[in-house]
Amino acid sequence: IKASNSLSVSLQAKMSRPVQARRLEGIDKNIWVDFVKLAATYSKVNLGQGFPDFPPPDFLKEALVRALSGEKDMLHQYTRAFGHPLLVKMLAQFFGKLLGRDLDPMTNVMVTVGAYQALFCCFQAFVEEGDEVIIIEPFFDCYEPMVKMAGGTPVFVPLRPRPSKDGRLMSSADWQLDPAELASKFSKRTKAIVLNSPNNPLGKVFSRGELELIAGLCVKHDVLCISDEVYEWLVYDGKEHIRIASLQGMWDRTVTIGSAGKTFSVTGWKVGWTVGPDRLLQHLCTVHQNSVYHCATIAQEAVGQGFQRELELYGKPESYFVQLPKELQRKRDWLVQSLDAVGMKPIIPEGTYFLVADISEFKSDVPDVPDSSEPYDSIFAKWMVKNKGLAAIPLSAFYCEAHKNNYNHFIRFCFAKEEATLKAANDILQKWKQEKTSP
Amino acid sequence: VEFTKVAADPSIVNLGQGLPDISPPTYVKEELAKAAANDRLNQYTRGFGHPSLVKALSQVYERVCGRKIDPLTDILVTVGAYGSLFSTIQALIEEGDEVIIIEPFYDCYEPMVRMAGAKPVFIPLRYKKDGNSASSANWVLDPAELANKFNSKTKAIILNTPHNPTGKVFTREELQVIADLCIKHDTLCISDEVYEWLVYKGNKHIKIATLPGMWERTITIGSAGKTYSVTGWKLGWSIGPQNLIKHLQVVHQNTLYTCPTPLQEALAQAFWIDYKRMDDPDCYFYSLSQELESKRDRMAQLLQEAGLKPVIPDGGYFMIVDVSTLNVDLSGVDEEQPYDYKFVRWMITSKKLSAIPLSAFCGPETKREFEKYIRFCFIKKDSTLDAAEVILKNWTKQTA
Description:
The complex is a heterodimer.
Chain A: H1 2-15, H2 31-42, E1 45-46, H3 58-68, H4 85-99, E2 109-112, H5 114-126, E3 132-137, H6 143-149, E4 153-158, E5 160-161, E6 175-176, H7 179-185, E7 190-196, H8 208-221, E8 224-228, E9 254-259, H9 260-263, E10 272-275, H10 278-289, H11 297-312, H12 320-342, E11 345-347, E12 354-358, H13 376-388, E13 390-391, E14 393-394, E15 410-414, H14 419-437
Parallel strand pairs in A: 1-13, 3-4, 3-7, 7-8, 8-9
Antiparallel strand pairs in A: 2-10, 5-6, 9-10, 11-12, 12-15, 14-15
Chain B: H1 2-6, E1 13-14, H2 26-37, H3 51-65, E2 75-78, H4 80-92, E3 98-103, H5 109-115, E4 119-124, E5 126-127, E6 139-140, H6 143-149, E7 154-160, H7 172-184, E8 188-192, E9 218-223, H8 224-227, E10 236-239, H9 242-253, H10 261-276, H11 284-305, E11 309-311, E12 318-322, H12 339-351, E13 353-354, E14 356-357, E15 373-377, H13 382-399
Parallel strand pairs in B: 1-13, 3-4, 3-7, 7-8, 8-9
Antiparallel strand pairs in B: 2-10, 5-6, 9-10, 11-12, 12-15, 14-15
């Protein structure tokens, strides 16, 4: 009895100090946990979380089947920690070609568990207390907590919409950085800037001029560039995806991140990569070998074979990197038309498989909740999934806490969906509109 | 990283890195083929663990632990047990903390603790002479020495049972000593139990989390790679009370968010198959250790015949071996390096056999104490062990 008394006393005594590490402060909330749960419970049509609902390409599924068949048992065991030999070889060849450089698969490429882990390795490797990291808003939500977890301070700079001329629909190109404003964000504490082009959630594809502006500032202030290019193949209307690492003075200070999930429509395989100079990648390897060490072998083998095929077909019409954007552009146009027809104002994305729509003229069903700290678009999105069964993500999710109410009447849709899904979304929207306009 | 490069040479018999070269069970491979064919499973799943997998894990471990385990709040699926160690340490350890590490230790514990800003405090297993047998059971902690390592800064102790590299299976009494100290000092226990199914006759794997007062302060880590001989699947898990696991989940959602879907589904199906036969000796959880026991015994015999002194492991798939009995003179070679590093390099070049030097598993103070040992891995197919046999049988002939 005496022992259990001292046990409960000591437990109580220690419980006043939190058991968790301080690096978790302020990063425990995650919008996806909430919105994925809501979509799973209520949605009939899920255009929320970014993943395709169509199958991956046959050649990739076949590559996985090939890897699993026969006596290739060693594919079930550990492979090279910094990347499976076939995959890093193909990535070095492929990106070497695209960047116009000779890349060494052993030192210029590192494979990660999705682009997500690549981002984590970058922040852990390069950012620490006292460092500032510039993040362009709206941003893929993980950048902010990852910078904080590394002890750094995020510094935000917004893309600002230019009003559209003559009533035409806005394009993601109309959302731009103010050069003076951007320049003002660079200080001697600035360690890195995170660039995401094509941009999630807006779909903006940064132009050469815009990239040169950013590059110029990086060189001037000796700042690193973490370039998240997971949607690199999803560009529309003949636009070009330009890799900032290929600009003057940038190769040496840039880590370029890619994703098999987005490239080959297999988000569930969680294979990503980083490409960059050895002087930067060696530090990513240090983080990687102390956090995850190896990535799953089989998925890497299949993705390596996928790249082999794409290298052979590069630029040809049968290339998946040609066919996928063509297919998605059709879907984009379909969804744009669908949203426009009911009075939501879509911003036409130049890239990615997301688009953002302005709901300020559509929102009448969904009352604002005065005195609520929750931004209006979040209230709207939650109401929409619960009452109409259509899931989308509020744009405020992609802003820091302080700026969540700056753009609170937009929601993000994912259009990497089967025709049937997009049709079903259209039906919901049409029905909803009719219910609004009829007495 | 260093030794895997050297041993990638196919002419070398690789008994170094803990890599099975035996086949995973057929049904495990088949489940992955099935999962891969299902289009739904090629996209993101639940971040903290695929639903069917956490459900299967909760069932298996409820049975083993004799307590209710909530699949959604008490389990986190990670990229290998390695990822679980990382998530646990990042979630619960920080600057100002001390973490007790038992030597020799799986080498990642120290850098992970340092990366979290904390101070590793080492305590060695010490060899206790007990008759003529050299068993992993002879390697023990001194309770008084252990007690001295605990203070008000001690945040956690890392336990690894069955132990890599010695193969020691901590007894209930030994675990109770550790548990008593954890409770007395209100310390967490990070229990790396990846080899939990690999225990040999006469031994029982006991989960420290099942001891009184321990569930609420223990994170227990497991591994698909070691359970099913699929190290390349890189799936592991952390199991513990919600108030600790929730912090691991926060780390996970800020590091890689979710693990691959088809692999998790295949693993879930494999677990269901074995869960249903947990009363059956055919269950892979038991049949693998039976298969490995005979490999262990064969390996031990070969090493003894070659004049080496193996420490027979009670669990795991590693065996440490005292090489000082051979008296190989390496004094001419690089003085700075511990003896076992030099021995392994010499053995790789001249005998075409690789192993891992034990000082790789020690903190700076103890490296010299363990430098006469090297570690062999015996989860190898017969042909690999046959090749090792040839080398070992010829060894004494050459050095004589």
